[in-house]
Amino acid sequence: MKNNQIFIFTDLDGSLLNHNNFEFKEIKDFILNCIKNGIKIIPNTSKTKTEIQVFLDQLGHNLPFVVENGAAIHNLDLVHPKFKFINNSLVFSRSVFEIQELFEKSIPIEFQMRCLFLKDMSSLEQMKILGLNKKYLPFALNRDFSMPLVFNGSKVLVNEFNGFLKKIGMKLHEGGRIYNICDDCSKGKAMTTLIEKLKNDFNFKSYTIVIGDSPNDISMLNVSDQPCIIPLPNRNNLCHLKDQNIIRATQSAPQGWEEVVRASLKKINFELEG
Length: 274
Description:
Blueprint: E1 5-10, H1 28-36, E2 40-43, H2 49-59, E3 65-67, E4 72-74, E5 89-91, H3 96-106, H4 109-112, E6 115-117, H5 123-130, H6 137-141, E7 146-151, H7 155-167, E8 170-174, E9 179-183, H8 187-202, E10 206-212, H9 218-221, E11 226-229, E12 247-248, H10 255-267
């Protein structure tokens, strides 16, 4: 493990950030110490670019990050200094405008009518659903690649709806609070693409720790060396995942994040200094 670069790909809401108030101050020093010890932390989230920038400002440290359920990776030079990409980013998705146009043209009207999009709600409804205040709400709505919504229907109808989306090269992601209609990308695809590029371009060896709490995290949990799950308050989340390798936190975020990182590092005999 000595010659492997350790990566932590982490969801934010409910995994690193407290599910209710989005705070992480209790573990801020621990996160910064992980970075100081050479661990590369990459937020991999359904959040927008502007939302993640708020988190990075609060952290006081710039990081590479994956936005909107695997739609794009930004700050690639912080992953490897020799990465050279337009705008320092890799984009895997069509724009939100293309996605909306295809949705309106191709999805049966009876399913379109079951979709209540966040952009069409009042600000009070948006704040209630997202748990955000008026200051941070615009950042969550500033989407480049996805359409967040509430779906009015049973799980059977949700699966049927997702089937129609897949036929046109899109998919429905279920997060901790809402659904998102996205292009055919995922957190797992973005992560594996990045790790493969490092391996192929620079003969880079890596060890991946992945931390999540919701169904849209499963794609990256499944392709990690060490999957970790954070419990959500009053919810038995991702209990159907039975991999014996999974580390499950006993605490919710943010303390649960530190708990699983320490446990993951202990398994590979990596000791943090400082």
